[in-house]
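Section 5: illustrative case.
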């Protein structure tokens, strides 16, 4: 059955009973959560709690043992990663993976090319124009012609986000986009992510920088040992005793 996702409250992403094991080890244990369209969702948990495994199951990089993933009302559980990407699930990686022999602009063009659906009508704007507008949006327009190995850390993170944006995502999964940045750089990237959220892009943020993820999120979920131990408003989640014990070690 196809859902009406034009309704503000309809979930963009529905995860139901997701379980993932590696050999005899259960990395995700019966995870169920809905994420609404336009929601800014923080995913936290101590090292090894299952955050990356969960987003790998959402993006299709890993196949779950049980459970389902619905996106825009469609069951995508059996789809490979590239078809999930075409449907609007993009991911930015903690360690940026640019094509090093290409310029910043060329890197983006690859993403745009990939996102375009074969056989579809020509886009209203030439791809280079679209790529330049994304770079401008990220504050990287002046770097369009620069080789990627000349970029600073924060510029690389922004380019990684720009590449994800070139996929024209409905859902952007940001995997530790701020790790290793200075306070002011964290704020810069955070402001960018918040502004993307304001444009109705649903964002799942995995982040160990607690202040950043709290400022960003409308809702947060904390995993521990592959299970959801808290889900709710950032203040509530952080005040949760199980979260404090598991995540903060108190
Ligand atoms: N391919 C794999 N094979 C075996 N075990 C794995 C594999 N991938 C993850 N695991 C295990 O699953 C558990 C969850 O790992 P995961 O990477 O999802 O945690 P995480 O919350 O993302 O951790 P971190 O914050 O350190 O990135 C860990 O115990 C990890 O060792």
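Designed sequence:
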């Amino acid at each position: 059955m196809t859902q009406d996702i034009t309704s503000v409250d309809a979930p963009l992403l529905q995860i139901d009973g997701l379980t993932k094991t590696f050999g005899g080890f259960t990395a995700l244990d019966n995870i169920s959560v809905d994420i609404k369209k336009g929601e800014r969702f923080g995913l936290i948990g101590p090292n090894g709690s299952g955050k990356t495994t969960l987003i790998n199951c959402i993006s299709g990089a890993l196949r779950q043992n049980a459970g389902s993933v619905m996106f825009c009302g469609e069951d995508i559980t059996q789809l490979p990663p590239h078809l999930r990407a075409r449907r609007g699930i993009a991911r930015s990686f903690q360690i940026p993976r640019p094509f090093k022999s290409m310029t910043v602009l060329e890197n983006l063009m690859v993403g745009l090319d990939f996102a375009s659906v074969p056989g579809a009508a020509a886009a209203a704007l030439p791809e280079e124009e679209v790529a330049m507008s994304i770079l401008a949006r990220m504050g990287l327009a002046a770097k369009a012609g620069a080789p990627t190995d000349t970029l600073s850390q924060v510029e690389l993170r922004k380019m990684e986000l720009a590449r994800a944006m070139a996929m024209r995502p409905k859902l952007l999964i940001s995997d530790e986009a701020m790790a290793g940045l200075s306070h002011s750089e964290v704020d810069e990237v955070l402001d960018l992510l918040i502004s993307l959220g304001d444009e109705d892009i649903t964002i799942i943020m995995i982040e160990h920088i607690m202040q950043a993820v709290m400022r960003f999120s409308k809702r947060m979920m904390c995993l521990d040992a592959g299970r959801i131990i808290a889900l709710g408003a950032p203040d509530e989640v952080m005040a949760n005793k199980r979260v404090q014990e598991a995540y903060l070690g108190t």
